[in-house]
Amino acid sequence: MYLDFFGLHRHPFRITPEDDFIYMSQQHSRAYVYMSSAIWSSEGFVVISGEIGSGKTTLLKKTIRNLDADLKLLNISYTNLESKDLFGLILRKAGKEANDDGKVSMLFQISDYLESMAAAGTPVVLTIDEAQNLTRENLEDIRMLAGMESMGGPSMRVILLGQPELKQAVLDIPQLAQRVKLFFHLEGLTYAETAEYIDYRLLVSGHGGNKLFDSDTVQEIHKLSKGIPRLINKLCDGMMMCAYAEDRPFIDPHDLSSIRKDILGDIVTDDTPKSAESRKPEPPVVGKSGRNTSELAGTAKALLRMAEALERIDSRLANIFPDEEPPLRASRSAPDNVKPLSPGRK
After folding, report:
1. Over the stretch 314-346, which tens digit does the pLDDT of each residue have?
2. Measured between alpha carbons, how far is 228 from 202 in angstroms, rounded to an integer?
3. Same domain, 146 and 261
4. 77 with 168, same domain?
5. SS3 assignment for 179-218
6. Residue 95 in 3-state DSSP?
7. Suppose 46 and one of 32, 38, 79, 155 were both cysteines; which one would form an S-S bond, judging by CB atoms 3.0 to 4.6 Å apart?
8. What is the bridge-based pairing of β-strands 157-162 and 124-128?
9. Measured in whole angstroms, how far is the alpha carbon of residue 276 from the centre of its chain?
10. pLDDT score at 254
């Protein structure tokens, strides 16, 4: 909705992975090099872990897009698998139909396929995203496949990507952990990287005007998101929506306090433990009707703000479609039973 308003030609803060938008921080560059080395090394086996939304899938997409050599990539992103499903999925990715749905039969078929590819001089690379969902048996099977030898060394190179628990799951299988050449964990971006990340995505989207997010706003975004790119995107997108709804060409840092719960849900962003006394909920104020007046006040304020935003969007649509009835016209005002609170009302 706000692309034209801010002079953009692409959405700057989507939460879906887009590898041409990726900001290559120092740690993302290292992870990219490690993944590339796993592809081109005959003993390549890399485990990349990171928090949800830290950019693992985007890095994988960038790595795959930049492949330009003769190799066979078996990329698996669905990992809620039963025991034999992994072998069946590998065969399908290899372009083979399973001769038999038995696990042993599929193992021999995969072995024959790897031998034929090795004889042709074509490396086979297995990449698995969201690998933290793999069972221990799945990981044991990957260890077995990675251990298959051809004349030039291991028949398959492996890249596993997943959430932090993936690393421990691999370490819990010593025979598998010993085959891993590199472990790498993606942390959140620093404050400076967060500022560069936001500016970079806006630049790629076509923004060429004044700086939208000032340093204080970026500082607060970094604090709330802990530098996780996906959360940064959600917060920035929410703030730009607020600016658009209120017809402002600038970002108001005060919007963060009003949208953070809507954007982040129940995500805890304050690491400081609260005392038991401070955690005790205050008793609600109950009016004559028996309803919690603080909840009523919060509901009224929220509805009034929504009504004001809809009024502004409605007027903008009326300018765009002067001869038509704008779809939001029916929502111009707050409900009749919602009245503004006077300053002294509790």
Report:
1. 565 555 555 555 444 444 444 444 444 444 444
2. 17
3. no
4. yes
5. CCCEEEEECCCCHHHHHHHHHHHHHHCCCCCCCCCCHHHH
6. coil
7. 38
8. parallel
9. 34
10. 87
